[in-house]
Amino acid sequence: MAHDNGQVVTIGCNLCRTSHHYLPADLRTLLGDIDIDTIPRRSTCEACGRRDYLRIRVWSPVLPEERAGLVVRRLQWVVTIRRPIWREEGWE
């Protein structure tokens, strides 16, 4: 619904002062259909690696000045890493 309204999700870090803009449909593809408040628990800042300083903002860039310089990150593809997890068992 947010994507249909032309809204943008801004995820920023208050520690290292970086921020990126995303389309809600791309975040839904990556994270699933989750509440916006759970994004900091499922992701970290790319610059500093912390998650406790993330801030989320959903907004609509309505003014032409807001849309002119807006750079939105688009999801290109998702790479799944398969990592085996082993357990030790006794062999009889």
Helix content: 10-25%
Mean pLDDT: 89
The total tally of domains equals: 1
Strand-residue proportion: 15-25%
Contiguous uncertain segments of 5+ residues: none
How far the N terminus sits from the C terminus, by CA atoms, comes to 57 Å
The rough form would be described as: elongated
Q: Give the count of helical stretches.
A: 3
Summarize the biggest pleated sheet: 4 strands, mixed
Gross CATH architecture? Single Sheet
SS-based class: alpha+beta
CATH fold-level assignment? Rubrerythrin, domain 2
User: What is the N-to-C succession of helices and strands?
Assistant: EEHHEHE
What strand line-up does the widest sheet have? 3-1-2-4
Radius of gyration: 18 Å
Number of strands: 4
**The CATH C-level class name:** Mainly Beta
In a few lines, what is going on in this structure?
This protein is 18% helix and 20% strand. The chain has 92 residues and is an alpha+beta fold. It is elongated.
Mind explaining what this structure looks like?
The protein has a four-stranded mixed β-sheet. 18% of the residues lie in helices and 20% in strands. 5% of the residues are buried. The chain has a single domain (8-73), classed as Rubrerythrin, domain 2 (Single Sheet), CATH 2.20.28. It has helices spanning 24-31, 39-42, 64-68; strands at residues 8-13, 19-22, 54-59, 72-73. A hairpin with a 5-residue loop joins strand 1 (8-13) and strand 2 (19-22). With 92 residues, it is of the alpha+beta class. The mean pLDDT is 89. The chain contains three helices and four strands; from the N terminus they run E-E-H-H-E-H-E.
